[in-house]
Every structure is written in structure tokens, then in C-alpha cells.
Write a structure and sequence with these properties.
The structure is a homodimer of 140-residue chains. Chain A has helices at 9-15, 22-33, 40-47, 56-68, 135-139; strands spanning 72-75, 83-86, 93-97, 103-106, 122-133. Chain A has a 3-stranded mixed beta sheet with strand order 4-3-5. In chain A, strand 1 and strand 2 form a beta hairpin. Chain A has 140 residues and is α+β, with helices and mostly antiparallel strands. Chains A and B meet through strand 5 and helix 5 of A and strand 5 and helix 5 of B. Strand 5 of chain A pairs antiparallel with strand 5 (122-133) of chain B. The first copy, chain A, binds a DNA duplex (25 and 25 nucleotides) through residues 19, 21, 23-24, 39-41, 53-58, 60-61, 64, 79-82.
Chain lengths: 140, 140
DNA sequence: GTTCCTGCAAAAGCTTTGCAGAAGA
DNA sequence: TCTTCTGCAAAGCTTTTGCAGGAAC
């Protein structure tokens, strides 16, 4: 479900005007293959074992670059910490479980959002963030 | 439009189990009458001239108390800074203009959100955050 | 008198900035 | 060689915590 059709990361980055350095490719690949709406710390923990010199500064630099180039989006569902997700074909919202902390994708049709009163506004980003208790935790 | 029907703040706080101290009433009143989805700093700037001893700690304490008691909600539209809004009868989303920074209320029917795949989930909070360029800035 | 509230100071945590050295073209 | 990228160290911000004095009842 989360897998997307970017086969050649090198090419994908280049197409958006980003030089595909070793670190940048690793960070993009991690985001693409992980399904946990990663924080900077998640990425750092996951990659620093393989790339021992990797610094958080580089992760921040890289993520900001990706966001600027619109291939990654920031999810503000967590007030204390930004989460990052690959920009996907199908826009979707997010649900965070208060109990277990897990973040779920919520697929909904953004085109049918009942938005009124927005004459002459240009919408660039849309985020739908829900919180509550997830199915698993409700069963307990 | 933003005005709500809370006439007696003292009573409103008491009903939700909050002791209506001078500071708490002032903060709640400010949120009720302002229309700018205030930050902690906004509140501090606005009130500290009248309440010279007011500290940001008290504002944080108070807002967290209000949020816990469900009479104020946090808006995470701004990654760097939390914004606070009175919980209103009519749920609504928010739009932040990248140009002027203004935050607008977006009225939409949360009940008709096209959400699927949420069997057995309990939804407690819903936030819809949009960004882009507002009508005023588009005219320039 | 006891409990709760306030606010100063300090700490904690996320993110950005400055800068020097390294890598890449 | 010249530009760009990386990463250490330090700084900047928002928010939380510890704690002592004060207010309320």
C-alpha cells in the first residue's frame, strides 16, 4: 500500500533539481520504504548505523530541501516534532492514536471536501489530522 | 461571527471544573474576543500591560488546563508555534496565508467528511489545515 | 492551616545558523 | 578550481519543570 513507483531514486531527485548525494538518496529511500511517518530522530537512528558520520543537520537540511521541492511533506499532527512523508499520488489524511502513538493513513477524497467561502483563495497544501483511539487499542 | 454565547466566563469555567482565577478569566476572555487564533506570545503581549506580573508560565499552564478540559483547542497549522482557539459549537478548519500570515476560519461540515476505513476507531479531535494564498493577497 | 495558583529561573527538546573542511564537477 | 554539500558546535525558540512565595477558602 505504501510502496510507490519510484524505481530510480537517483533519477527522481535529479528530475526535481536535486543533486543525488549519498546522504540524500539514503534519506529519501528510508522515507519511501518506511511506513511510520518518520521524525528526524527516526531517520537518524535508522541510518546512522550505516552512515556513521551522518549528522542531524544534514537530515534537517535534506528534508527542508525535499519539502521545498515538493517531494516530501511535513505532517504537523504531533505538536512537538515534525513528521515527514513522501508526497504520494493519492493525497490522504492522518490519524494519531493517543494510546499507542501509531500514525495511520486515512484515505479520503480531498476533492469532495465540503469547503465553502474560499473565493479567490489559492490552496497549496491541505492537511487533515485526526486523533483518538485506534482499532487495536479499542479492542484491549 | 466569532462571538460566542458565553456571557459569564466565571460560570463557564466553574462548570467545567476550573477555578476562575483572575489570570484564567483574563486569558479566556482574550481568546474569546480576539479573532486571531492566538499564540502564547500574542496573549502575553496583549495582557501583560494590564496584568504586569503575568508570566508565560501561567499562560502555558492555563492553556494546557483549558485544553485538558476541552474548552480550548490547539491548532497545529504553524509548525513552530502552537495556536489556541476557543472550542466552538461549530467545528471548523483553518487556512493560513503564506503571504500575510493571516489565519482564516474555514467552515465545512465535518459530518460529511468522506472518511473511510476507520472501523472501530474512536475519533476525538479533527483538524483541517490548509495553506496557500488568501483572497486579499491574490488581488495584489 | 491547607490546598491550589502564580511566576521566576533553569532545563529540555526541536530546529536553525555559522563556519570550516570535504566532496564533487 | 570553484561550487556545493556535510557535519560539528553553538545559538535560538518554544515549551516544560522545579520550586518558593502568595492567594484563596
Amino acid at each position: 500500500m505504501r510502496g510507490i513507483d519510484i524505481v530510480d531514486i537517483d533519477d527522481h531527485l535529479r528530475k526535481t533539481g536535486i543533486k543525488p548525494s549519498y546522504q540524500r538518496k539514503a534519506i529519501f529511500e528510508y522515507l519511501m520504504n518506511s511506513n511510520c511517518h518518520s521524525t528526524v530522530n527516526d531517520i537518524y537512528m535508522a541510518l546512522s548505523s550505516n552512515i556513521s558520520t551522518l549528522s542531524k543537520t544534514t537530515i534537517y537540511n535534506t528534508l527542508n530541501l525535499f519539502v521545498d521541492h515538493n517531494i516530501v511533506e511535513v505532517i504537523n499532527i504531533d505538536p512537538n516534532e515534525a513528521r515527514y512523508d513522501i508526497v504520494r499520488e493519492v493525497p490522504h489524511g492522518h490519524f494519531k492514536c493517543e494510546e499507542c502513538g501509531e500514525i495511520y493513513d486515512i484515505f479520503l477524497d480531498f476533492n469532495t471536501l465540503p469547503i465553502k467561502d474560499l473565493n479567490n483563495f489559492t490552496i497549496k497544501t491541505q492537511q487533515i489530522n485526526l486523533t483518538g483511539i485506534c482499532g487495536k487499542c479499542n479492542e484491549k
